[in-house]
Amino acid sequence: PDVLVGEDEFVEFELYGEDAKADWGRQVPKGTGLVRLGDYRREFVVVVRLELHCLTRLVWAINDPSAPKSTLKHSGHCLIYIRHRVLCDADLTLEIFDPLELELDSSEGAKEATPPHVCKAWTKMLEELRDDLERWENSDDNLFNQREHWYVLHKNPIRESDDTIDVVAK
């Protein structure tokens, strides 16, 4: 469902430093963001999870360009992916533009000029992803929640990262 969201309902995240990496990492749902549907539990990824992952990876690249997660190829892919999603889901809400207002030290004036936006109920979506992951982790159908199965199938060691499980090539 859609919800009306005002500008003041979004939490500000840091852009630089360790706090930034932690802030942005917390918004990415635990696990892979997959949902499992139907009798055969076919897996689908929710697009917003990919978008959040890409934003988080770009923040990592800004803060630690030499980190393995910050590869130029991955960052470039993420930037292109986010651009595509922004254009695909273009928000056509009109906002008042006043260059003088942008110069204010306080954001109070800017908040008054920003109309509410109609957003998807993304907090509900995050809850559903968490619930689905928990059901899957506790399911008798799930062979992949046990690391030894993943290791045997891929013949690679597994390393936990802060927002996903990465398979590390030998």
UniProtKB/TrEMBL annotation:
<dbReference type="Pfam" id="PF11807">
    <property type="entry name" value="UstYa"/>
</dbReference>
<dbReference type="GO" id="GO:0043386">
    <property type="term" value="P:mycotoxin biosynthetic process"/>
</dbReference>
<keyword id="KW-0175">Coiled coil</keyword>
<feature type="coiled-coil region">
    <location>
        <begin position="119"/>
        <end position="146"/>
    </location>
</feature>
<protein>
    <submittedName>
        <fullName>Uncharacterized protein</fullName>
    </submittedName>
</protein>
<comment type="similarity">
    <text>Belongs to the ustYa family.</text>
</comment>
<dbReference type="InterPro" id="IPR021765">
    <property type="entry name" value="UstYa-like"/>
</dbReference>
